[in-house]
Amino acid sequence: MTGNIATNAASSGIVFDRKKLKALAKRSDRPGLIWLAQWVVLLTVTGWIVYLTLGSWWLLPAMMVYGTVLTVPAYALSHECAHGTAFRTRWLNEACLWLGSLIYFEEPHHRRYSHTRHHTYTWHVGKDSQMPFDTPMTFRGWLLETTGIALFSYEIRVFALNALGRFSDETRTFTPVSELPKLKWGARACLAVYALLTALVASGSVWPLYFILLPRLLGGPVMLLFTLIQHVELQENSPSILESTRSFRTGCIGRFLYMNMNNHVEHHLYPLVPFHGLPALSKAIADQLPEPDPGFFRTNWEVFQVVLHRSLGRSTKAPSLRQAPNMITAGGFDRLSKASMS
Questions:
Q1: How many CA within 13 A on the CB side of residue 302?
Q2: Where does the chain have alpha helices with state H?
Q3: Cβ-count burial of 186 within 10 angstroms (0-12 exposed, 13-18 middle, 19+ buried)?
Q4: What are φ and ψ of residue 163, in 5° steps?
Q5: Model confidence over 88-130: pLDDT tens digits?
Q6: From CA 19, how far away is CA 24, in angstroms rounded?
Q7: pLDDT of 166 over the 70 cut
Q8: What is the per-residue pLDDT for 187?
Q9: Which residues have CB under 8 Å from 96's CB, separation 6+?
Q10: What spatial distance separates the first Cα and last Cα of the chain, rounded to whole Å?
């Protein structure tokens, strides 16, 4: 264990010119508004395809595509706005935080404070409030995570407790006492929106079902595959972001949907750099970073192989995936930590 050392660039031994960092960290509305407009266009096009396929067998694949376009960016937008870096204008940032969080299924204030804790103690057992699965990950853990069962069961419990004002000990560790009422009323507001959508469906309205609820469920696994590979198979309790966090390669579509958060090591090193500055940051400090892992699909495929082999008692050495030494065994394993999001 490393005590109370905060995880950041300094704890990771990364050096970067302050003036260059300040330039990259400059906030602006323009890149965020351009990204938002592009997202709306993609939602409109894929949503129109869903409309055209209503009543046919093509509806399911259409909703899966639309659901991916809905859900992955909603998560990324919620994340970026929780940092306050998506836009320079505060009200715009907060409005998009609410929009993204409602789709993602997390109360915005809880999202912000739990994520701050995650950055402060990244992948530290007992301190990181966003460790969504037990480590090392098994096939059962992978299944619960990628289907969304683990996420929904955790968030439903958080919504219920916060709405009642019965905050868990975990929530109290990362939330200032003065902010707890915001979590309570935020949870109630979110639940009211979800209740309204449910009531509309129950009354015979189909648009929330085909354009929000079912697409969110169908697109959820893709979103969770993006988030899964951020830290899985890496080192717990390390002061170095380089050991606990993964960047990975992906194409232009993946970079857009995920708001460049595939540069995840870079983001954890300098979390105040907005999404549009991450590619430049990655180039600037590339000589100090580990090589990004292979593409999105290959990285996830190798994670799947590793967790399956672990559950079968076989070797967990991945072909090319970056792994912490203690994650590689010839067979058998000891559980190192329990999920904090459980």
A1: 17
A2: 18-24, 29-53, 59-83, 90-104, 108-120, 139-146, 149-163, 169-174, 180-202, 207-208, 214-228, 241-244, 252-257, 264-269, 278-284, 296-311
A3: buried
A4: -65, -30
A5: 999 999 999 999 999 999 999 999 999 999 999 999 999 999 9
A6: 9
A7: yes
A8: 98
A9: 32, 36, 77, 81, 86, 87
A10: 22
Query: 246: buried, middle or exposed (CB in 10 Å: 19+, 13-18, 0-12)?
Result: buried
Radius of gyration of the chain (CA): 20
Is residue 43 packed enough to be buried (19+ CB in 10 Å), middle (13-18) or exposed (0-12)? middle
59, two tokens:
């509806």
Q: Letter for the amino acid at 282?
A: S
> Average pLDDT of 192-197?
98
- pTM of the complete model: 0.96
Q: Is the Cβ–Cβ distance between 99 and 77 less than 8 Å?
A: yes
Measured distance CA(94)–CA(189) in Å, rounded = 15
Q: What are phi and psi of 85, to 5 degrees?
A: -115, -5
In total, the chain counts a number of residues equal to 342
Mean pLDDT across 147-154:
97
